[in-house]
């Protein structure tokens, strides 16, 4: 299978929307306001933290709120205090500062940032563990969620693939993103055979 024909290519995975039947972005924004416009999205790798943050940012932007976002990437190295300070300043008096991966900052930088965040109008962060901000939502996954995402990418019922999906979900420890990339390899090798019509 050519990469461009693979239903599990990264561009399609990245385009998936956050889903959790227990919450909606609107309800989480209401809760965020109740928490003093401070909130952390907490959860293990590959459970939808970045995707949920993007959904919240989109809702805030629709409401006209200025949003300044940064993402901490382990590969690229953490942003310096200067970069963080400029992003906070760019938020202005009514802006929302978003940081994806606050726990990846060095401990002294995190301590410095926590002090600076006290003066921010609004704050959203993601973290793999509690980080000193109110926990807005804890992300989680399930085999059913993986099956739902796989079905969307395939454009058909994923039930015939359920044994494979369950195995990948267990093997990745619930990291749905990693499981979907594993499905890319399965599809590329021709191991995901679509069911015959009516089967």
Shape: elongated
* Structure annotation, total helices: 8
Oligomeric form of this entry? single chain
Tell me the major beta sheet.
5 strands, parallel
Q: Determine the fraction of residues in helical runs and give it as a percent range.
A: 40-55%
Order of helices and strands: HHEHEHEHEEHHH
Which stretches of 5+ consecutive residues score pLDDT under 50?
Answer: 195-199
Whole-angstrom Rg: 19 Å
**Mean pLDDT figure:** 90
Estimate the strand proportion: 5-15%
Q: What is the straight-line distance between the termini?
A: 23 Å
The number of strands is 5
* Class derived from helix and strand content: alpha/beta
Strand order of the largest sheet: 2-3-4-1-5
Description:
The protein starts with 9 loop residues before the first helix and ends in an 11-residue tail after the last helix. The chain has helices at residues 10-14, 25-34, 49-62, 81-91, 107-117, 143-154, 162-171, 176-188, and strands at residues 38-42, 67-71, 96-100, 122-127, 135-138. The protein is elongated, with a radius of gyration of 19 Å. It has eight helices and five strands; from the N terminus they run H-H-E-H-E-H-E-H-E-E-H-H-H. The protein is 43% helix and 13% strand. The relative contact order is 0.18. Helix 5 (107-117) links the parallel strand 3 (96-100) and strand 4. Helix 7 (162-171) crosses helix 8 (176-188). It has a five-stranded parallel sheet, sandwiched between helices. With 199 residues, the protein is of the alpha/beta class.
Helix-strand layout with pairing:
Layout: H1 10-14, H2 25-34, E1 38-42, H3 49-62, E2 67-71, H4 81-91, E3 96-100, H5 107-117, E4 122-127, E5 135-138, H6 143-154, H7 162-171, H8 176-188
Parallel strand pairs: 1-4, 1-5, 2-3, 3-4
Helix pairs in contact: 2-3, 4-5, 6-7, 7-8
